Amino acid sequence: MRNSRILVWDLPTRAFHWLLALCFAGAFATGGSGPLHGVHVALGYTMLGLVAFRLVWGLVGTRYARFRSFAFGPKSVLAYLRSLASRSPQRHVGHNPAGSWAIWALLSLVVLVAVAASWRELVRGPAGRDRTLLAVAAAAVAFVAFAKVLSPQYLLFLVPLVPLAGSAAASALLLLALGLTQVWARFPGPFLALTHLGPAIWAALARNLVLVALYAVLLRGLRASRTTSSP
Q1: Which of 202, 205, 206, 210 is the most core-located residue (most Cβ within 10 A)?
Q2: C-beta separation of 20 from 47 below 8 A
Q3: 3 located within any domain
């Protein structure tokens, strides 16, 4: 019987895995407030961009890159873990049930880290209305970018917040994200059916990356306001 080869991880998924690991290692090595702090911050933003890409690729990528290929419930996870102690453990092409839950936990952790980073910058500087608005706007952008990938209505949360942050660059990026959303959000059918819209899905990816850039602009403004704001 001849063994057949199955393509599991496509090139974009492999590139995501390696780049995310390298960025994490680089961010860990350059942590602290030394001369490489700028590199540390840049690697952090790159990781956020990579995750934003992976969230969209998990909806429109190849078979084993899609989230639905490793959407396992608690019963499947428990059955898989019990099988590891037997003589015939379960075999899965792609992620196994336990591994799939680790992936979901990792992606959820990115959302929490992005939101926590904005509030960390807030408490490291003087309190004030302007800095609080920046922190709230940055946290809201992180939530929309990483938790609501294909939900254009959630961008309405950002419309009153981002302009109040007082950054022309942030407002311009929000307008760009809203414009990109209009490219694909007007198509009929549920949002998850976007996998059949061909090139239109790339507008969703571009919108998500623009939101990552918007988050970076807001966080940079929050960091810069440490010395210019007064309580």
Answers
A1: 210
A2: yes
A3: no
Residue 85, domain extent:
11-224
Report DSSP state, residue 195: G
d(CA 167, CA 32) in angstroms, rounded, equals 27
The residue among 129, 200, 212 whose CA lies nearest residue 174 is 212
Q: Cα-Cα-Cα-Cα dihedral of 163, 167, 173, 176, to 10°?
A: 50
- This prediction has a pTM of 0.66
Note whether residue 178 is domain-resident: yes
Domain count, the chain: 1
Contact 225, 135 (CB under 8 A): no
For residue 6, is it within any domain? no
Residue at 1 is within a domain: no
pLDDT greater than 80 at residue 231: no
How high is the pLDDT of residue 86?
78
Residues 17, 61: contact at Cβ < 8 Å? no
